[in-house]
Amino acid sequence: MQAALEALRDSRPLRAEFICREYLERNPGSVEHLRLLGGALLKQARYPDAEQVIRHALAIHPGFPHLHEDLGSALALQGRHSEAVPCFEQAIRLEPQLPQAHKKLGEALAALGRGREADESFEEFFDRDPARGKVALALDHLQAGRKEEALDTLRTALRENADNVDALRLLAQLYWKDKKQLSDAEALLRRTTKLAPGHTMAWTMLGGILLESNRHAEALACYEAALRADPASAVAWSGIGIAHSHAGDVEKAVEAFERAITLRPGNANVQLSYGHALKTRGDQPAALRAYRAAIAAKPDFGEVYWSMANLKVFRFEDDEVQAMEQQVARDDLSQSAETHFRFALAKAYEDRGDYDRAWHFYETGNQRQRGTVFHDPVAMEVRHEQIEAVFTPALFEKFSGQGHDSPAPIFIVGLPRSGSTLVEQILASHSQVEGTAELPTLVRLAFSIGRYRPDKKGYPESVAELRGRDLKAYGRQYIEESAAFRSTDRPFFTDKTPNNFSHVGLIQLILPNAKVINARRHPFDSCLGGFKQLFAKGQHFTYDMAELAAYYRQYHATMQYWHRVLPGKVLDVHYEETVSDLETQVRRILAHCGLPFEEACLRFHENRRAVKTASSEQVRQPIYKDALGYWRRYEKHLALWQEMLGDIVEELPEAVRNAGR
Fold first, then answer.
1. Which of 157-161, 302-306, 388-392 has the lowest mean pLDDT?
2. Same domain, 459 and 601
3. What is the CATH number of the domain that holds 424?
4. Are residues 333 and 445 in the same domain?
5. How far apart, in whole angstroms, are the C-alpha atoms of residue 125 and residue 127?
6. Euclidean distance between CA atoms 411 and 432, whole angstroms
7. Residue 572 bridge partners (DSSP)
8. What is the CA radius of gyration of the chain?
9. Residue 143: partners with Cβ closer than 8 Å, 6 or more residues away
């Protein structure tokens, strides 16, 4: 019995069930073990099974108050509140000192609309268990939309008892949901798991917070702790899948998602994540099956339809297009779902050659998304001015050769949807280069420079006051932190974060031997690619045509500046020239990186490495020219870009300017 109780306390209901059933085979009339078995089944959400076991125990011992409470719980969890009420009342008659029975009775009465009687039961519960009563009161505040009152109640509960596990967990949940005080939420959950090592929900919540901070290894450890407490936790298995996906271990991610789906097959979010992992692995048919399973579970899940469209080489069936049209016609659809549906419909009509209809959905989808994100167009102009003021020829001369001497990184920069994934795939097909992903390392490192200065002088101004040994230390830090995203010992690796284009000066200072490649494309195709893409996060400048063109101008000006002050540091690779003359461009790319030519780089599409970006399916095909000058299909809608970017177009090589004619 002690072992079964400990298993339940540690949130290991399967273990508790096994212990109880093994004992009951030898002692079938043990009411205590029947009650524990019922509790284990309730923990597993097997409510009808739990009801049957508890009724059997009550037949043996009808005067056991806790069993009446347990039966009421089993009935209430099945939505049978009118049957649950007399069970809780009988439990209280037999044992008035059962605080949880009063609470559960109040909940059942409230569900039946018997508000006055529910209030009386809750008051009784609060009087008998003040600590839990405050948590219950906080939950009532939340259900009534009184969030500040809920927060105050939980903080009061913790002042009175700092070890109130329920209050710790719920307060952390509120902080996490609001995306505020995340460090406090993490601290509260760490305290919770220390007090209750078997608290599965606390472990999975902590894992979620750590994932959002890109602390994948720590998150994985939390989910593994949750599984030790409850091996049947679908949430924990899903978290493990997400952690492995972020860390680049797609095979382990797929395995974890499959375990989660086995435990909870109807979870649309897990099916979506599973589809993403399968897409990354290159298994499009399986990814589509997972996406369609998510739609079957949740027909209004717009993000799934967009994920299917985001396969790029996929075309929707007629009934799927009709289903999406029906969804956007609803007036009760969430804004996020509607935006996803509009982008997916745009891709569907584009594939059918109906470019006007496609543009309608791209334009309206972008309008809706722009209202949900923050982008300051002026900030980019200010950043460019700061770059020219800080990263001067004199600064580069002063610190020449003083950074970390590793030649390993190859940075691929540019704008999204401009061919950077193709360049990465070419390089990753070389025997000496490991293709990683869009690493967050350099951006995080850049904005850590000067973060704690008393004068608040941040990046990039604070770079000018660094010393040579600081630069070397930052370069070493980049190499060490990026190692977490690597899985081979190849001497070189790629970092394909497009927005690193503004950090080329920093790269030169801290990693002077690193190579930089600027993936370029016709401005209209580059902007159109961004406008057609609904990004999972970031790239907020892409949702407005004028802001997108303004951003392109600043990007272009920044790259021109790097060419002037760091001649030869950056190699421009035009997508159009690569597609038209692959071997010449491959040889240019490899020569710039100091690598010998290898035929495998021409057969990049045969490389089965995991690719996370939107171009994942496209770079698994041989080179094709269908996308050259794609903007011409939408030319009548692009007058604004022609006005804002025409001078840049005129400077392009002829092969780029005339592509698609």
1. 157-161
2. yes
3. 3.40.50.300
4. no
5. 5
6. 15
7. 518
8. 30
9. none
For 365-382, write each residue's pLDDT tens digit.
999 999 999 999 888 889
Q: Band of the pLDDT at 622, cuts 50, 70, 90?
A: low
Q: Do 504 and 589 fall within a single domain?
A: yes
Question: Which parts of 298-334 fold into alpha helices (H)?
Answer: 302-309, 318-328
Distance CA 247, CA 436 (A): 10
Distances from the Cα of 568 to the Cα of 126, 323, 517, 584, angstroms = 73, 53, 10, 18
CA 643 to chain centre: 37
Both structure tokens of 580 = 């038209």
- Strands across the sheet containing 515-520: 433-437, 492-495, 409-414, 515-520, 570-574
State which H helix or E strand residue 611 sits in. none
**Does 399 reside within a domain?**
yes
Dihedral sign of CA atoms 650, 651, 655, 660 in order: negative
CA distances from 436 to 94, 211, 482, 502, 514 (A): 65, 18, 9, 20, 15
Q: Are residues 365 and 381 in the same domain?
A: no
Give yes or no: residues 500 and 603 share one domain: yes
Q: In whole angstroms, what separates CA 535 from the centre of its chain?
A: 11
Is residue 506 within 8 Å of residue 463, measured between CB atoms?
A: yes
> Does residue 515 fall inside a structural domain?
yes
State residue 121's pLDDT score.
80
The answer as to whether 481 is a domain residue is yes
Q: Which domain holds residue 348?
A: 318-370
Query: How many domains would you assign to the chain?
Result: 2
Furthest CA-CA distance within the chain: 91
In terms of Cα–Cα distance, which of 571, 569, 565, 648 is closest to 389?
A: 565
**Segment holding 203, helix H or strand E:** helix 200-212
Judge if 395 and 541 occupy the same domain: yes
Please write the tens of the pLDDT for every residue from 320-375.
Answer: 999 999 999 998 899 999 999 999 999 999 999 999 999 999 999 999 999 999 99
Strands 515-520 and 492-495 come out as unpaired
Query: Do residues 361 and 388 share a domain?
Result: no
Reference 131, options 172, 102, 159, 98; nearest CA is: 159
Tens of pLDDT, residue by residue over 551-581, are 999 999 999 999 999 999 999 999 999 999 9
The residue with tokens 């070419």 is 426
Rounded CA gap, 79 and 83, in Å? 9
Looking at residues 232-258, what average pLDDT do you find?
91
506 falls within a domain? yes
d(CA 73, CA 59): 17
Does the structure show a pLDDT above 50 at 525?
A: yes
Q: Are 406 and 532 within one domain?
A: yes
Structure-block tokens of residue 381: 């102009």
CA 459 from centroid of its chain's CA atoms? 27
How many CB atoms lie under 10 A from the CB of residue 255?
A: 15
pLDDT tens, 162-191? 888 888 998 999 999 888 788 999 999 999
> Residue 427 is encoded by which pair of tokens?
């390089």
* In the block, residue with structure tokens 């801290």: 510
Report the alpha-carbon distance of residue 81 to residue 344 in Å, rounded. Answer: 43
With tokens 């070389």, the residue in question is 430
Share of the chain above pLDDT 70, in %: 96
Q: Alpha-carbon distance 273 to 525, whole Å?
A: 30
| pLDDT tens-digit readout, 419-472 | 999 999 999 999 999 998 889 899 999 988 977 777 778 899 999 889 999 999
Residue 237 has, within 13 A of its CA and on its CB side, a CA count of: 22
Token reading at 250: 């797609």
pTM above 0.70, yes or no: yes
